[in-house]
Amino acid sequence: MNNNAQLRAVANDSRLMILKWLKAPRANFPPQIDGCLVKDGVCALLIARKLGVSQPTVSEHLRILRDARLVTSKRIKKWTFYKRNEDGIRQLKKYLDAQL
Questions:
Q1: Is the pLDDT of residue 12 over 80?
Q2: DSSP letter string over 11-57?
Q3: For the chain, what is the mean pLDDT?
Q4: Which domain holds residue 54?
Q5: How far apart are CA 78 and CA 35, in angstroms?
Q6: 5 near 67, Cβ under 8 Å?
Q7: Distance (Å, whole) CA 39 – CA 51
Q8: What is the pTM of this model?
Q9: What are phi and psi of 10, to 5 degrees?
Q10: Do residues 35 and 73 touch, judged by C-beta distance below 8 A?
Q11: pLDDT over threshold 70, residue 9
Q12: For a Cys-Cys bond, which of 15, 28, 63, 95 suits 21, CB 3.0-4.6 Å?
């Protein structure tokens, strides 16, 4: 894993906020028609609404987080759901701990 990509991914307030919200999806998002907030993740549309941005903008944020392996994505019907990748987050924390 490229730690620089992970660092760039979390160097943005919106992406940090998304990771924070996904840590407690039931507390931060309403119930979904399709997909379990915890098991399947949160629909990108709900994340866009909460962040107050357009679908393309949130898609770019989520792509960067996914490419950095900080979130995972799952398709259900026509929707994409995102949840935290705790392994990737642990690796980033371990890297930061070793550097600081």
A1: yes
A2: SSHHHHHHHHHHHSHHHHS---SSS-TTTT-EEHHHHHHHHT--HHH
A3: 95
A4: 3-99
A5: 12
A6: yes
A7: 22
A8: 0.93
A9: -95, 5
A10: no
A11: yes
A12: 28
